[in-house]
Recover the amino acids of this structure.
């Protein structure tokens, strides 16, 4: 067999690679069409489909209910933004409290540990009930009665417990040698925390924190339990009025408009973090 | 300054059941370099950490410039500001640039003006062969370069005493030379230092005295020609023989 | 490669658009509640296409409140709708032991697909829009809205709905009260809409709302049996009137039979008797305009 010249061999390899790649693409397109087309065909041809389409995907019901749901969604957004900030601050404070070793702060540290366990371990919906209906029942002076405030407090406490644990994990994940090195150049413990440990810890925990926020964005809907007219509650009202579930789909879409970009940002930050490490 | 820069008197330290430092006495005069040699686990790192007040001693005293630093009434932060420590694993701050690593101590601990600190820092990096790298992140540098940054960082605070803990042990052989060059440089300038090391040739060249640590005690101490070439104690002899066999002396 | 990715992305998107936009045509649905007349033959006991053979399954929500049910146990046949259910069953030819109850949360009762009950009694108001998705029987009760306020409060003794405009009003989700409040009272601040009756009552007891609007019979029951310090400030008509019907699956074969049963109960006075026994105080609350 004669030896092919290097140029020919290379050309042959390239051709084979191209053919493989084209095959792969063709298979990808065909399988996608088959799977999604097949699924669509099954759904559209099912006997119950017309009814489901009417009761879940009705353009008319969507148009009628959407403006009011959007109005209610502004309330969700406002609540979510304020709570987010509060959660970050309180969560960081609690994490700092739990990771320092000073004896004087021991009772506070114990309290913080109990706080985290209780507020992470109790379903958020129960917390909202307890704060919304239980707190006013105590009839203590100075206790707020506004359900938005009460629900906001419940959500803040629940999520700051989550976030505190995340921050705490981040802080303790920074190796002791970093603190040693910071102390060795003459920093105080507080300075070491502030300039060396915390910046690294916070950078490290951005993905899980963002994840918790996507969760929070959705859980804001739970404040509807206390009667508040936000998007979910309004969608429920519309649904019950006309016996059509489309408003719930509309509310879900609004939530997706907010949570999907957050998820993409999260992916981006996670990927960037991996490139750097 | 008359009198030794550092005095270690009867220092002991145990971790649980294990006695790591079993009565250490050592004096370091100004401009002197003491090399600490000994097997792994002999207590070299622990001793340096105790001097740097990163680890608390059980018993004994340590004095810096005549003042007891291990007294509970003494603020360790003030003490550490007079010391410079370089670790085996460099321990640079990964989220900061090289120049920021070097000047962090000066700016935050010693309240030096930032611009002035940057000037001095840049000059230092230049002197250590890292000119032009000041805005890089540590992970963009080789091990040897990172260790030189660590040396600059420790030196930037103008310490009374530098503690070097096996600063070349984590480096590939070809990178060791540059680091040793810096240490040589510092010694020439008159820096008082204690270096824990495995590099016997280096100890011989730089150190005024070599101390051999064995099972928590300084078993032999003397000029390098003596301790390293004609050790008196059998433990020292055994240690050096083993080192030689492993191709490290 | 990017072009391929675009194509692959488009396929599922197109499929989704298909799902939403196409499917079958939107048949023009009737705007009136279905009331078809059928021959008597199809309502014979043997021919009745019930959910379970030989059994009449009646649905309602849980908890089941007075005065519509008693002790949260529909099978005791007490309460307005409890008694009505057994009366309808009797008309259809079922005796008491052949009636079973199913707990159907309100927002499940109108879900598409086969129903797990034959008809549902849950104080459900008939509206044309709702009737596009389910069947309603002929109405068995006309309800008005009752306003509950703390006894002796500013709102106790009002004479018109305008006086409620500055109040924070609580209503229950899924009731016509919300629309009634929005359209008849037009309050300055949003009403508070709670998921269930218990929460509405709690909010009232804790003074988180100034007044609550519920169906009048329920308002009376709450005042008499549950709340310590409440007064019924008055009643008013819900917009478009508020008639209750039994709820059945869309185009259910049982609808004409249930209609026939209710009409029969109306004609022979049983319906009036049941209404009088369980909902009698309703007439006494003053009317607000």
């Amino acid at each position: 067999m004669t030896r092919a010249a290097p140029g020919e061999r290379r050309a042959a390899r390239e051709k084979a690679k191209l053919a493989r790649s084209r095959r792969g693409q063709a298979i990808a397109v065909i399988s996608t069409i088959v799977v999604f087309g097949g699924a669509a065909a099954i759904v559209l041809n099912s006997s119950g489909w017309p009814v489901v389409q009417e009761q879940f995907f009705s353009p008319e019901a969507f148009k009628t209910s959407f403006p009011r749901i959007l109005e209610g969604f502004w309330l969700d957004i406002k609540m979510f933004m304020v709570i987010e900030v509060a959660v970050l601050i309180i969560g960081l404070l609690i994490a700092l409290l739990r990771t320092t070793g000073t004896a004087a702060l021991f009772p506070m540290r114990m309290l913080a540990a109990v706080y985290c366990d209780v507020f992470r371990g109790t379903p958020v919906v129960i917390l909202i009930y307890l704060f919304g209906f239980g707190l006013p029942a105590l009839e203590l002076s100075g206790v707020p009665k506004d359900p938005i405030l009460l629900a906001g407090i419940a959500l803040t406490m629940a999520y700051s417990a989550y976030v505190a644990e995340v921050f705490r994990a981040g802080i303790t994940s920074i190796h002791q040698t970093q603190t040693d090195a910071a102390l060795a150049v003459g920093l105080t413990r507080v300075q070491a925390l502030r300039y060396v440990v915390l910046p690294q810890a916070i950078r490290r925990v951005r993905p899980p924190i963002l994840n918790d926020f996507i969760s929070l964005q959705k859980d804001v809907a739970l404040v509807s339990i206390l009667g508040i007219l936000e998007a979910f509650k309004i969608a429920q009202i519309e649904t019950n009025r006309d016996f059509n579930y489309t408003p719930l789909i509309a509310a879900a879409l609004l939530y997706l408009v907010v949570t999907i970009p957050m998820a993409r940002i999260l992916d981006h930050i996670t990927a960037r973090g991996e490139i750097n490490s | 300054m008359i009198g030794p820069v550092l005095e270690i008197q009867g220092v002991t330290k145990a971790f649980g059941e294990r006695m790591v430092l079993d009565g250490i006495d050592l004096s370091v005069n100004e401009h002197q370099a003491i090399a600490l040699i000994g097997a792994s686990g002999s207590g070299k790192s622990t001793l340096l950490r105790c001097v740097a007040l990163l680890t608390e001693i059980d018993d004994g005293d340590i004095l810096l410039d005549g003042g007891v630093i291990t007294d509970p009434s003494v603020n360790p932060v003030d003490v550490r500001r007079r010391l410079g420590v370089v670790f085996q694993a460099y321990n640079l701050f990964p989220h900061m640039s090289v120049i920021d690593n070097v000047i962090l101590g000066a700016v935050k601990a010693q309240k030096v003006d930032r611009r002035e600190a940057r000037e001095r820092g840049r000059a230092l990096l230049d002197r250590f062969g890292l000119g032009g790298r000041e805005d890089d992140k540590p992970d963009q540098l080789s091990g040897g370069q990172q260790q030189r940054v660590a040396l600059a960082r420790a030196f930037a605070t103008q310490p009374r005493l530098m503690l070097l803990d096996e600063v070349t042990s984590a480096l590939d052989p070809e990178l060791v030379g540059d680091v040793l060059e810096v240490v040589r440089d510092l010694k020439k300038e008159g820096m008082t230092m204690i270096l824990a090391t495995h590099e016997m040739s280096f100890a011989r060249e730089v150190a005024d005295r070599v101390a051999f640590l064995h099972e928590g005690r300084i078993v032999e101490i003397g000029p390098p020609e003596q301790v390293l070439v004609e050790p008196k104690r059998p433990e020292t002899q055994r240690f050096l023989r083993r080192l030689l066999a492993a191709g490290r002396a | 490669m990017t072009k391929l990715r675009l194509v692959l992305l488009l396929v599922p998107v197109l499929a989704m658009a298909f799902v939403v936009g196409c499917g079958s045509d939107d048949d023009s649905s009737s705007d009136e509640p279905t009331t078809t007349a059928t021959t008597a033959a199809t309502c014979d006991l043997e021919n009745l296409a019930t959910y379970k053979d030989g059994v009449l399954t009646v649905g309602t929500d849980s908890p089941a409140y007075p005065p519509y049910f008693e002790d949260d146990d529909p099978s005791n046949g007490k309460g307005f709708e409890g008694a009505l259910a057994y009366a309808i069953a009797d008309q259809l030819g079922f005796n008491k032991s052949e009636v079973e109850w199913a707990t159907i949360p309100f927002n499940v009762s109108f879900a598409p697909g086969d129903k797990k009950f034959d008809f549902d009694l849950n104080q459900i108001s008939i509206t044309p829009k709702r009737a596009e998705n389910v069947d309603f029987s002929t109405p068995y009760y006309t309800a008005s809205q009752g306003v509950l306020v703390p006894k002796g409060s500013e709102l106790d003794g009002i004479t018109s709905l305008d006086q409620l405009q500055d109040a924070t009003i609580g209503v229950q989700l899924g009731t016509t009260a919300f629309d009634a409040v929005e359209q008849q009272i037009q309050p300055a601040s949003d009403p508070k809409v709670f998921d269930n009756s218990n929460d509405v009552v709690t909010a009232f007891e804790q003074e988180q709302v100034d007044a609550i609007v519920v169906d009048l019979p329920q308002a009376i029951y709450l005042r008499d049996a549950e709340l310590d310090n409440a007064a019924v400030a008055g009643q008013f008509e819900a917009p478009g009137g508020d008639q209750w019907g039994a709820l059945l699956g869309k185009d259910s074969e049982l609808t004409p039979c249930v209609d026939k049963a209710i009409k029969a109960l109306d004609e022979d006075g049983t319906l009036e008797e049941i209404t009088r026994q369980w909902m009698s105080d309703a007439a006494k609350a003053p009317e607000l305009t």
